[in-house]
Each structure stands twice: as structure tokens, then as C-alpha cells.
Predict the structure.
Amino acid sequence: MALSAKTQYGIVSLIELAAIYEQGSVLQVAEIAQRQGIPDRYLEQMLTTLRRAQILRSIRGPRGGYQLARPPAEIPLLQVITALEGEVAPRSGSERASAEFDALSALEERLEASRRSILEGTSVQDLLDQRNQLASAQAMYFI
Amino acid sequence: MALSAKTQYGIVSLIELAAIYEQGSVLQVAEIAQRQGIPDRYLEQMLTTLRRAQILRSIRGPRGGYQLARPPAEIPLLQVITALEGEVAPRSGSERASAEFDALSALEERLEASRRSILEGTSVQDLLDQRNQLASAQAMYFI
DNA sequence: AACAATCCCCGCAGGTCAACCGGGGATTGC
DNA sequence: GCAATCCCCGGTTGACCTGCGGGGATTGTT
């Protein structure tokens, strides 16, 4: 699995919130959790993390909930994943001193760069579009 | 870290073995482990795995050791990593039934495809070349 | 003002997995 | 025969992911 459950839950929630972004309304943790079939107590942690990263905004009290802090097209997935999984420790201290490990590091950087490139170039809006496209395709198939 | 320690140890060993492939000689587990500063008892497991995957050949008894089973240019890293980390379980059973999860799956597939593409297109020989290039660059810098 | 809905914070637990260690057996060159 | 080397298999430790629970803070509604 390329993405952890934590990350998947967070992103799926963002797609749901993106769908109602225009209306300026909110969704509650329990609401999202039930619809997606994921544990609400766990999802709460993800949404809190995303709020701290200023990707979400929260409203407390009755009729409260979460909403996107900015338009979904302005939320690259790289930011979301970085917030949820935490920063990668930048090669602290003991570099393996070996020419072979150095050559391998060059490869790892290429791998990470390619991954970053995709995640920087994909926004929550893109995933929402994809969801709608898949949904309509399924509707067509159904007829 | 894009690659696990297990994978790193295995690949680094393959680079060392690629460097002596022409001579048809062998390297021993303890030899590689000491030079690379990695635990020998652990490295043994990786080399055993690579032998079972027919990437390495082993010779037992005194003066024994390991050598590549084929020319390093014919060993794509994807095979190495697949052998070391094991096959990815193919989406067993309980698909999350949700349009949002489906859209996310499409992204995950793109991520994995891009990774596979790099790992298929890079061989152990390529890493050996990179090592030699880095080594000579460092030599130039030293003068 | 009281109440209830909702988010907020923090710590804990259980399971899984990566990384590593150790014991003893099989092979084989010298 | 002996020692070097690979071979096999199981155990351990520590971290991390996933998830739960208790109680506190905020706020709309009545």
C-alpha cells in the first residue's frame, strides 16, 4: 500500500469536504466516519492534524464541523501527506560512508523526486474531479 | 526513507558483486558486511533471499561466497526489490466501497506505476556506473 | 441560564513489523 | 579430519500504526 490508512482517511475526508466547499457548509467527524466506514475516534485525530496544518478550519458547538480552509484547487496532496505523516528526518548524522551507499542515495532521491512531483501536481480538486468522473462512468454503465 | 534497510543492504551488496563480476570471483558475507558496516548475520538473510530469487549464486565451503547469477546489466532493480520486500498483496477482498476511496486508488496506482517505471529502467550495472562516476568525481575534487 | 452538540487534548493499549541475534546443521577445499 | 563457509529456522526487541476512552472547552438553541 503506497499510502497509510491515516493518509487515506485524511484525503478521503478532504474529497468529501471539497464537494461542499462552494456552499460554505460543514461536515462533522461522525458524519464522514460513518459514510466512509472508518473509526470516528481515529478520524478525529487526522482532522485535528489537518486543522493544525491550516488545511482545515473547524467550527465548534452544535451545528459545528469542518470545512476546507482554502479552495480545493489550492491544496496540493503533498502538503496533506506531509502534514499527516510528518516530515522525513533529513539524513541525520551518521551518513553511511561508502561509495555504494552514495550511489544508492542518488537513486532514492530520484524516486522521491518523482513521487513529490506527482503529489505536488495533484490537488484535492483533481481527486474530486476524478471521483465525479468515476461516479458518472458508473452511472452510464448502470444504464 | 524510500527503501528499507533490508533493501539497501541487498542492493549495496549487489553493487559490490557487480564490480567483480568480470573476474568470476566471489565475495563472502562477512567481507561485504564489514566493509559496508552492516550486521553480517542480518545481511546473510538478504543474500539467501537473493539466491532463492536466482539473482545470486552461492558457493559453499572454504573459499566460498557469493557472485551474481547473471551480468549486472540484466538485473533490474525492480526484481531485486520485489525479491527482498515480497510481493504486494493484490487488494485482498474488502475493497472500500466508496467513490472517494476509488478516486484515491487511482492516484495510488499512478504513484506505484511511476516508481515501478524507474525501478524497471535501472539495473545493478547502472548503479555500479554511478558509483564509479561518483568515486572519480571525488578523486578529481581531491586533487 | 441551562443544556446538549460538537470539537479539543492527551494518554494508553494491542498488534504488527522491521531489524537483528543465535544455535546448530550441511558442504567442501585443503 | 578439520575448518571455513553457506544454510535454515526461530526468538527478541523496539518502534510505529491503528484505534479507544476520558474528560474539558466552546457555542448555538431554548
Summary: Strands of chain A lie at 56-59, 65-68. Residues 28-30, 44, 47-48, 51, 58-66 of chain A lie near DNA strand C (CB under 10 Å from a C1'). The CA atoms of residues 23 and 67 of chain A lie 10 Å apart. Helices of chain A lie at 5-19, 29-36, 40-52, 77-85, 99-121, 124-142.
